[in-house]
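Request: Have a read of the protein record below and say how the chain folds.
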Amino acid sequence: MSKWWEKHKQTPPILLANCDNAAVLADMVSDSNTITPAQEQAFETTAHGGIKTTQLAGALFNHKDDKKGYHNIFCFWWQENVGSEFTFSDTSNTCF
C-alpha cells in the first residue's frame, strides 16, 4: 500500500490512534525492522482514511445535542451553495 502513495506522490492517510494504540505505534516507528503482533493489531484497529473522516465529520456536523456542533450552519451553507436540502447522516450509532 505504501508503494501506491509513493507512485502517485501522495501522502498516506494520518493515523488517528487512541492513547493505547498511539504508544504501541510509536514503538513501531522507532523500530521499523520488526513488527510485533501487538503493533500489527494496533495498526489494523486504528481508524484512518475515509472511515475516520466520516466519524469526525459526523461528530462535528450531526451532534446529538442541537446546541453543540455545526449541523444547522452546515445545512444553511449546503442550501445556499448547492441549492438543495441536505442533512448530514447519523454516524454516532454503535453496534455492540
